[in-house]
Amino acid sequence: MRVASDWRAAAAAALLAAQARAAAPSPTAKTELAAAIRSYHRLDLMKALDHFNAALKARPSWKTGSGYRAECRWALGEQDGARADAAVAAKLQPNDVPSRVARGKARLILKDYDGALADFRAAEQADARSVDARLGEGGALAAQGDARAALKALDAAAALDPESAATLLLRASVKSQLTDFRGAESDYAAILAVNPKYAWAHYYRGKALRDARDMPGAEKELSTFLDVVPDHEDAAYLRGNVRFMLGDYRGAVDDLTRVIGLDPRKALAYSNRGLARAALGERDTALIDLRKALELDPSRRDKIQAAIDALSSADAPPPAQTSATASAAARAPSASAAASADAAGASKSAAAKPAGTKPDAPPPPERNTGQEDSQFIQ
């Protein structure tokens, strides 16, 4: 009787061990996941996705792998796929640091910010050197609107791995929210040192430099980005603003013409191209643009009509002539800066994908397009 009982116990133990081995990811799956995480931290997102897919092919329905892939898919703008992966990973019963981090990533995407924060902090307690735990904590705090606490967590993540471009990207966004535009610009430059092909860093560095009042630097970075993504409407509009501030009215006209080609009903592009043309002495075409803007956007009637009236008066100078002083001041960086526009945690979302050639991944949708500081009609 005892022999039979011992045999059944041994058989049950053997079965449990076999089930555990079957459930465990294979060495191939683990290797692919590690490669995917390395690529993600470099912001080589398409390569990371390939490795995540390979890991999940080697171990289908792997919840930990799904949690990590969810974050990568979200960064690439694949929101439906990201949510599907997050739904799988949210069912995790974590038993180690990677699984806690994976569930935290899933909860963050599913907007369970408190749950995500708890997972990331539990992972930190288990492994104080986990970069992903600190990065996740920063993302969750940013999503909750606590930018200063988010910055502290991201500083800790960057100290653990100074070459984590993913950490630098989120930290730069948080710094911009805190109006530390020079700090943000420095982080974007560091991203390009890690991964020169991540073109979106040029776009956001250009925005940060504009907010830091370094217009020549902003123009250079935005031009580099537009060489890669020529049909990005916000970048073209922002460079038009920067060129206007620099007194390059012809360049501003060219950029705003590009914007109008991409969105023929963008009233601000017409009104501001009209101001740039007025600065060039092109009165008739300036009036045509301003009247078109008034037709498209009657809500700005007072400002647009004032510009039309000024141009229509034979004795009145073009409205943009008064910008000479501002343009000269814009050439020298200043400590003052306009406030950055977006909510915390926006870096988890995807902007509209540009037509034509595009870089590795779309950026966070920070919609500050440079309307605040020039004489552009707003």
- Number of discrete helical segments: 19
**Global Rg:** 26 Å
- Helix share of residues? 55-70%
What would CATH call the homologous superfamily of the largest domain? Answer: Tetratricopeptide repeat domain
Specify the structural class: mainly alpha
The major beta sheet can be summarized as: none
CATH architecture descriptor of the largest domain:
Alpha Horseshoe
Overall tally of structural domains: 2
What's the CATH class label of the largest domain? Mainly Alpha
The portion of residues forming beta strands comes to under 5%
- Which of globular, elongated, flat, extended, rod-shaped describes the shape? elongated
As residue ranges, the low-confidence spans are: 15-22, 314-357, 361-374
Number of strands: 0
CATH topology of the largest domain: Serine Threonine Protein Phosphatase 5, Tetratricopeptide repeat
Helix-strand layout with pairing:
Elements: H1 2-23, H2 27-41, H3 45-58, H4 63-75, H5 79-89, H6 97-109, H7 113-126, H8 131-143, H9 147-160, H10 165-177, H11 181-194, H12 200-211, H13 215-228, H14 233-245, H15 249-262, H16 267-279, H17 283-296, H18 301-312, H19 324-330
Structure description:
- With 378 residues, the protein is mostly helical.
- The protein has 19 helices and no strands.
- It folds into 2 domains: 27-162, Serine Threonine Protein Phosphatase 5, Tetratricopeptide repeat (Alpha Horseshoe); 205-348, Serine Threonine Protein Phosphatase 5, Tetratricopeptide repeat (Alpha Horseshoe), CATH 1.25.40.10.
- Helices cover 67% and strands 0% of the residues.
